[in-house]
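Order emerges. One example.
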Amino acid sequence: MATLADYGPEVRAEVKQVREVVATLHEQLIKWNLVVWTAGNVSQRLHTADLMVIKPSGVRYEYLTPGSMVVCDLDGNVVDGTEAPSSDTASHAYIYRHMPNVYGVVHTHSTYATAWAATGQNIPCGLTMMGDEFGGPVPVGPFRLIGSEAIGEGVVETLKKYPKSPAVLMQNHGPFTIGKDAEAAVKAAAMTEEVAHTMWAARQLGDIIEIPQADIDKLNDRYQNVYGQH
């Protein structure tokens, strides 16, 4: 089994940098009320090798440090770290193997997004910000048991049907989000909870007015290609 010492200085330098990024981003999950106790995880894939950095399993957020982050290969095998990796490691690894443009994955149990997952419902696209970020509804993926790559398979299967969405609500479990890096995946997780909460509130007031797909496509194109600094 390979260890980090078997990799060159460029890879080891990126591992050091990504460990710092991933450790810091876990603080954002707390800040945006996306997790409780030890639930949830962030990972980021390296550019210099087929490796990823992920949260250790069952460790409280206030105890997380760059050094406690675990380095794994894309089959989920530990390459470096003193702690056992997240129980979702195999699913993160599956996503990276099958979605080569994805370099960040996040899983949370945020309250409103998970409520939609518990009812097996897509979050309908009734907000322009949903068109911007998700390109349509936030889809529900299939029920899968934790501990293998089965959840990752469900995420990939669902996103093939909703290629513009960075988020999947895994039924009876919670949201998984992806991005060009871990920060983008954390942003998608925060946005998922925001729209889940707002669309739940809208349902209490009446029927949600869904945006036509043609307008969603225009919103998404503007947001992805025009909005912000370039």
The CA atoms of residues 124 and 166 lie 15 Å apart. DSSP finds seven helices and eight strands in the chain. The two ends are 43 Å apart (CA to CA).
